[in-house]
Design goal:
Length: 593
């Protein structure tokens, strides 16, 4: 074999790196050298020849009992890590705990240096250090890799917060990845200006066999997907009369794009079995030919035959999530003037959903750029006002009065431009409710938004929160649960869970409030109101040590928090609920002033 060249020119490459090694391999080998070396080699062989290639991975190095692998993106790396742990579990069957082979895995996405043979640089070191942070049988990933994953689809993700890695000067935001745990019709909204909405074509899925038992399933599902995706205000969807003509035709992506003028195309295939239907879909951006999302589903055949609406809802939710995630990455790193307007809008929304303050700050610049580019479109103003409301929630402001004034002006402008738009109505109500404390007006605008679009999850969750502030616990529970039902894969699902926990506080159901807030905390540890809810709920249960722990967490995120400032900021302050929660915060150790 030819010796590797050390003179090849270095170039940069953006990739996802996985480092995996066997936990306590020295102890295992010391105990029974030959047996355990052969066991470890057997597992590594199967990983190298089967598991890694199946997940589009490239094995770069074997470091004793460790593997360095690169992947096209974090989704493949995460799936491979979970498969790796499953393989180890299978190899451990019938083995006592002390003799079991366990891996620890680190995953990080970054720009690296490469000579086409090896990878070099900080990104490689970070992946290795993340593996060191992992416990036996666990996978630790960086925030930049986590941003490419869909919770509940790519795995359960737990926010571990900022962690210091060996020989890495700055703290790294870290998540733990685990296998997924077992756990009224809308009115179409008023559309945006054409340039702000990406155009999507849904091509009916094709049966693998000409004589498939459900020959019309692809067309029926395409109709349902078109109906669901048409409610996504950031998209324009081609009519079924156009895309139905394209099914079962051998057409290139370029031809489909020229016929439909679509920026995004959804295609799929399926086959019908006696008890199930298996279908695969992918979403492609026509300009770049990049696959932005793909997935394979296995449905009960009876559910397909009765045209269960949950099937189309599940697919459309995943597609929207994938678009937000993909364009958030683009908007984070690309000069704004070079991006198309639909990419900017999707990217700005995606960035605002992220937990990192720098991504959140970048979103505001995206919305301001869109306002200049489209001064007569309502959505850039509505989303910018939403950004300001959220920044006040988090305490990320230098001048609260200025932020409130700008939020009100932008929400008012969005409503002036499009008075029937459900998002504009919702955001104006949020400003009225949560920033200006004008609760009577806010409730009317929330109700108007839901009359316009009964699927506006933001309106449901924030009207429910307004009811919680007022002590109307049953109504708060109803509305916040409706929002959660409408947004199972929303990037802000953690935020909805916190607000549903607030509804439980209003009902004095403190164990449920704790359960919901903990679920939110697992997904995002940097949302300060989640910590406050947990401090209040534990204080109300007289669990003072736990209450103080969560109060300390709230103060770490918002060092200026006092009971006095809480009452100044809280929309609940003028109600008995707010006074009760303030007293609970004081018992939890939040300073009075």
């Amino acid at each position: 074999m030819a010796a590797p060249s050390f003179d090849a020119e270095l170039h940069t490459e953006t990739t996802t790196i996985m480092f995996a090694d066997v936990v306590e391999s020295v102890r295992l080998i010391e105990y029974d050298e030959k047996v355990n070396v052969n066991r470890i080699r057997s597992v590594l062989r199967e990983l190298s020849t089967e598991v890694i290639p199946e997940h589009q991975g490239t094995l770069l190095e074997r470091r004793g009992d460790g593997l360095l692998v690169k992947f096209p993106n974090a989704k493949f790396a995460a799936a491979c890590a979970l498969a790796l742990h499953s393989l180890a579990d299978a190899a451990n069957e019938g083995t006592v705990v002390a003799d079991q082979i366990r891996f620890r895995v680190g995953i990080h996405s970054s720009e690296v240096l490469t000579d086409s043979t090896s990878l070099f640089g900080r990104g490689v070191n970070t992946a290795a250090r993340l593996a060191e942070l992992s416990s036996a049988g666990a996978t630790t990933i960086s925030a930049i890799s986590r941003a490419q994953l869909t919770p509940a689809l790519d795995g359960d993700l737990t926010d571990l917060g900022e962690c210091y890695l060996k020989h890495v000067s700055q703290a790294v935001h870290v998540f733990q990845l685990e296998s997924v745990s077992t756990r009224a019709p809308a009115v179409v909204v008023k559309q945006l200006d054409a340039d702000l909405r990406g155009r999507m074509a849904v091509i009916p899925a094709i049966a693998d066999a000409e004589n498939d038992a459900l020959p019309f399933f692809g067309h029926v599902l395409a109709d349902e997907l078109i109906a669901h995706l048409s409610r996504v205000a950031e998209l324009r969807v081609c009519s079924r009369l156009t895309t139905a003509q394209l099914a079962r035709r051998e057409m290139s992506l370029e031809t489909i794009q020229s016929l439909t003028n679509a920026e995004f195309v959804i295609t799929g295939r399926y086959r019908t079995l006696p008890n199930h239907v298996i279908a695969s879909f992918e979403l492609v951006e026509t300009a770049t030919k990049d696959v932005l999302w793909s997935n394979t589903f296995r449905w009960d055949r009876l559910a397909v035959e009765r045209q269960d609406d949950e099937i189309a809802k599940q697919i459309s939710a995943q597609i929207r999530f994938a678009l937000l995630q993909s364009y958030a990455i683009t908007a984070q790193s690309t000069a704004l003037p070079t991006l198309k307007s639909h990419a900017l809008l999707l990217g700005g929304i995606g960035l605002m959903h992220r937990s990192q303050p720098e991504s959140f700050a970048r979103a505001q610049g995206v919305f301001e750029h869109l306002q200049q580019r489209h001064p007569r479109a309502s959505r850039p103003f509505a989303w910018s006002a939403t950004w300001r409301v959220f920044s006040v929630f988090q305490g990320w402001f230098s001048d609260r009065d200025e932020q409130v004034s700008k939020a009100h002006a932008e929400a008012r402008k969005a409503l002036d431009i499009s008075s029937a738009d459900s998002l504009a109505l919702t955001v104006y109500a949020m400003v009225k409710s949560h920033l200006r404390m004008e609760h009577g007006d806010a409730e009317r605008y929330f109700s108007d938004a839901l009359a316009t679009n009964a699927s506006e999850a933001l309106a449901w969750v924030h009207r429910g929160t307004l009811y919680a502030f007022q002590g109307r616990g049953a109504e708060a529970e109803r509305d916040t649960q409706r929002a959660l039902e409408l947004s199972p894969l929303d990037p802000w699902h953690y935020y909805f869970e916190t607000l549903s926990a607030t509804a439980a506080l209003a009902r004095h159901d403190f164990p449920v409030a704790i359960e919901r807030a903990n679920a939110s905390l697992r997904a995002n540890r940097s949302h300060s109101s989640t910590w406050r809810v947990l401090a209040i709920a534990h204080a109300e249960l007289d669990q003072i040590d736990e209450a103080r722990r969560f109060a300390d967490g709230a103060r770490r995120l918002d060092p200026s928090l006092t009971v006095e400032k809480y009452l100044q900021r809280s929309p609940a302050a003028h109600y008995e609920t707010g006074q009760t929660w303030a007293r609970a915060l004081a018992r939890a150790g939040i300073p009075l002033n």
